[in-house]
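Meet our chain:
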Amino acid sequence: MSILFPRAAVLAVALLPYLATAAPLSLEEALAIAVKRSESTRAARAGALSATEAAHSAAQLPDPTLRVGIDNLPATGPDRFRTTRDSMTMKRIGISQEWLSADKRAARQAAADAAVGRETVLVQAAAADTRRQTALAYIDAFYANESLKLAKLMEHHAHEELEASRARLSSATGNSQEALALASARGTSEDETADVLQQQGAAGAAFQRWVGVMPDELQPPGAIALPTEEAYVAAHPTVSAMQRDLEVARRTAAVTASDRKPNWTWEIAYGQRTGYSDMVSVGVSIPLPVAPGERQDRDTAAKLALVEKAEADLAEASRAATAEYRSLRSDAQRLEQRIDRYRTGVVVPAGQRTAAATASYSSGQGSLVSLFEARHAEVEAQRKLLTLQRDLAKTQIQLAFRPLTAEVAQ
């Protein structure tokens, strides 16, 4: 309760300007809200904090060891277990310290810093994924709203023309077939509106999953700047993560290679005897690598194999990101061409047909059914154009929001 309340308060403050003015929400505002409330980004930040804290101790020496004991304590005879009767019995206290060379500590620090870099990339990746998913949900919600406007317009047209047909039928200037056809058309329009409302509800639920609120109106997404192929591949989340994994593997291999030189341990102890002089002992422990080719070198070879694996994974990820960019860019270009052709070849003629049918009906030469069909065809053309524009916007978002940015959510 104490953890969730401050986060809810922060979200409420972020939403306050929108809720107070009830202004249409923009894409950038939605992205900012989504990143602030993203739990995946918060989890990634916690991972980065953990790695950062661990890195602070990477180059430190191990803790010293306190050693306390009794040497040469009698175990048999009349003086057994007595610490003050035998001259050889000595109470001892000392301290030992394992020593790591500066090179080893530097290697461990570099490996820890590489791990921090990897976790930082994961924070950026979580924020970028949240922004991309939010932008896609925004596009779906925006175009669902626009499609609903067209569906309601078509329903309004069908209602108008059905009422006009009934009026003509009551005045004996119309016919029942026309009225029945328009009644069926109105029912179809109402069903289409219900279908679009269902789609709008699904899009709104997806939008709420990221932003937490579904406004009545969204601003048009506007132009979306697209990256170059080189920038897309370099900042692709998978490629960036693989680059960090490669760096971690290299640093880890360096740490393992440094273990071929053993760590020395020095020790100093003070011994107290009864009736005799106290003593001081000083010593150094040096591990002896008796078979480095079968132990230390094997460990290093294992780590170097992981470096090679990371290099191959990075190369494969770069190829996949390049193919992904080219596929999305090709889809975007084809959609742009289709939109231009469809607008010129279908939408404009459909509008001209509606104008001609309206003029013909006004002059008494055309029928209400012909007018409705012309209006319906124009609205359908506009809905198809909206679908193409939505697909283009979603493709552009995949291109623009997939790569990592320098901005990391606070």
Q: What stands out?
A: The domain at 30-62+109-262+302-401 is CATH 1.20.1600.10 (Outer membrane efflux proteins (OEP)).
